[in-house]
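=== RUN LOG ===
request id: a7f3
mode: sequence -> structure
chains: 1
length: 161
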Amino acid sequence: MRIAIYPGTFDPITNGHLDIATRASKLFDKLVIGVYETPNKPVLFSPEERVELIRKTIADLPNVEVESFGGLTVDFAKRAKAIAMVRGLRMSADFEREFDMAMMTKKLYPKLEFVCLMSRVEYQFLSSSLLKEAASLGGDIHDLVPANVVEALKKKFKGKT
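=== RESULT ===
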């Protein structure tokens, strides 16, 4: 079985993330979305909330699972028995960061392949950080995130979205 992981903070999951997960699910027998529990940046949603938002979002993708993890991503990949790590690329700045990550990953776990999928044009600008800022200020984010995420953001920002 060809298993891949798709790790990230996903605070919250966006339509861009969903697009990458959907496309990756067609390339592998099983995709495990890994929600990083303790990122080095402030988060709006707890790990449990992020996992639940993603589970609801990917419910129609039968070969995709979601779980949270801590520590090194390569250790998560080993536990999942993954042969590849999937990442999405939006712009050239992403490429440089992902390239560095790929090289470190190869050093730590040479058996793991690094697969980058280019974001669709409509999601090139989209990041969870920008999304949260727009939502907090009452911006219309309905076409940027799944409906369940819109509702979760409304609760977090007291109905401004």
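=== NOTES ===
The chain has a mean pLDDT of 94.
The chain has one domain: 3-123.
=== END ===
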